[in-house]
């Protein structure tokens, strides 16, 4: 069994109001030195069997059709505990 992680983030050119709200709150809470905050989503998928190229291709399909909005979001897929990693930017 493999654990595959999909991280979804807004594209850099898309405004991130939640990230800006966190960034604005940090100094009020005594945290300095943070120049930008971007908010995202993390999905962990437990996959039956090994994380083969075919399996990872299916995860990319899942990420593109269900987990992300390719118009405004990018995603990255990686196997937790493994070295396989792939990013997608639409």
Taken together, the total number of domains comes to 1
Sheet with the most strands? 4 strands, antiparallel
> What do the pLDDT scores average to?
92
Determine the strand fraction and express it as a percent band: 25-35%
Extended strand count: 4
User: SSE string, helix = H, strand = E?
Assistant: EHEHEE
**Architecture, according to CATH?**
2-Layer Sandwich
Mind telling me the CATH superfamily name?
Phosphoribosylformylglycinamidine synthase subunit PurS
CATH class assignment? Alpha Beta
InterPro entries: PurS, PurS-like_sf
Enzyme class: ligase
Keywords: ATP-binding, Cytoplasm, Ligase, Nucleotide-binding, Purine biosynthesis
GO cellular component, one term: cytoplasm
Describe this structure in words.
It holds the Pfam family PurS. One of its GO terms (molecular function) is ATP binding. One of its GO terms (biological process) is 'de novo' IMP biosynthetic process. The chain has helices at residues 17-28, 53-67; strands at residues 2-10, 40-47, 73-79, 85-88. The protein is an alpha+beta fold and 90 residues long. The protein has a four-stranded antiparallel β-sheet, with helices on one face. The model has no long low-confidence stretch (mean pLDDT 92).
Give the SSE map.
Blueprint (H helix, E strand, L loop, with lengths): L1 E9 L6 H12 L11 E8 L5 H15 L5 E7 L5 E4 L2
Antiparallel strand pairs: 1-2, 1-3, 3-4
